[in-house]
UniProtKB/TrEMBL annotation:
SUPFAM superfamilies from the UniProt entry: OMPA-like
Translocase is among the record's keywords: no
Protein name (record): Porin family protein
Compartment(s) of residence: Cell outer membrane
Residue ranges of every copy of the Outer membrane protein beta-barrel domain listed in the record: 7-221
InterPro entries the record matches: Beta-barrel_OMP (IPR027385), OMP-like (IPR051692), OMP/PagP_B-barrel (IPR011250)
Lyase recorded as keyword: no
Amino acid sequence: MKKVLLASACLFALAAPASAADLAARPYTKAPVAVASVYNWTGFYLGIVGGGAWENGSGDPKMNGGFVGGTAGYNWQTGNVVFGVEADGSWADVSASATGATVVPGFGVVTATASSKTDAMGTVRGRIGYAVNQVLFYGTGGYAWIDNKITLSALGLTASDSKWHSGWTVGAGVEAFFAPQWSVKGEYLYRSLGGETYFSGALPTGTLNFHTVQVGVNYHFGGPVVAKY
């Protein structure tokens, strides 16, 4: 019996290394590749916009004030270059007034007040820019308009007339995504509006030029984030 046990122990000792060698090797699992988010600016967007405007001119008083409204646009991206079209319209309170003495036939010298107020403004523009992932630097230009009203008051009487002024605009801005479908932008525009004649030809105006600075928040439809490995 002792010989049998010794023989069995020797066989077990010889078989153990061979069995361990026959065990399957641990499978190798490749580490997952990190996913980088790339922002694609192509698509339609809607937003809100607001800011301030002040008249560019040599005389005083100069019109100034604020505005707030909405915007809509569409972007196309190829490589890092982004093309787009954008339209905006705003309610405005950009105004100036002056009071002084004037001669009224039959009444002599009287005190009169003249005021000019822009109560709506907007643009339709093209945009072209360069995107650095979620940040877009761009230039812009196109059509601009305002709805302006002039009011004259004297001798307890008041008369008003409104005109639509059309012109052009040019400027630049920067826009950046702060969430997958939301972006914020800051923009400067120079607007030049052609003159109009008020009160049936009695009061012609010259060109109205405005500096405007505005900020906006846009919602982009269709999800501009594309996963890249």
